[in-house]
Amino acid sequence: MKLVAPSILAANFNRLGEEVEMLNRSEADFVHCDVMDGVFVPNISFGIPIIQAVNQISIKPLDVHLMIVNPDKYISDFFKAGASIITVHYEACTHLHRTIQQIKSLGIKASVCLNPHSPVALLEDIISELDMVLLMSVNPGFGGQLFIENTYQKVVALKEMILKRNLKTQIEVDGGVNFEVGKKLYESGVDILVAGSFVFNANSPIETIAALKKL
Fold first, then answer.
1. DSSP strand pairing (170-174 vs 192-195)
2. Which residue, among 8, 24, 12, 10, has the nearest Cα to 143 in the 3D structure?
């Protein structure tokens, strides 16, 4: 199944409610929410109040990506704000298994993200606990970056790891997604495409989302 999670990081925050209502009308499967703290990544985006506000409007599940240090402290807060999926970074978690168990204990999906420099082999001992793996195909922190080509090979390796264990773990990729990249990612084994600028800067975001799902 080809799924799309538009990232509201690229939305017009002067009319964020309208942007979320547009996603409600679209074929988007999730609303991707990039939370950045200015410490783990060199940018500050938004936090719990925005997640709460989006959740009040959205009929789509919120896919919350925590690009923050010490995510364990805030998992319960983001769950209460409306997260259906919480993604933490491998690079930010000292006790990753404990963090994943904390997320799953809330009855929501648990996901781990790998930065571009982190090999998928790092997930060998945790993959069976994960509902999803998010691979960053750009360096996290800013939208509009160019896709890192090595991501295709990482997707293939991760898919092999998942199939070898007969798991249902989904693969999500975030960064530099367009029609050409998206098609190759789906062919490589990706389940969910995150698209920010490509969707929200399009003449018709709704048509762009529909086209991404048909690649």
1. parallel
2. 10
Q: Look at the chain and count its residues.
A: 215
Report domain 3-213's class.
Answer: alpha beta
Report whether 97 belongs to an annotated binding site.
no
Under 8 Å between Cβ of 28 and 20: no
Q: Which residues of the chain have pLDDT under 50?
A: none
Question: What pLDDT, on the 0 to 100 scale, is given for residue 145?
Answer: 72
Closest by CA position to 192, among listed 79, 68, 61, 71? 61
32 labelled ligand-binding: yes
Determine the Cα–Cα distance for residues 188 and 184; give it in Å rounded to an integer. 6
* Residues marked as catalytic: 34, 174
Please tell me the distance from the alpha carbon of residue 174 to that of residue 137, in angstroms, as a whole number. 6
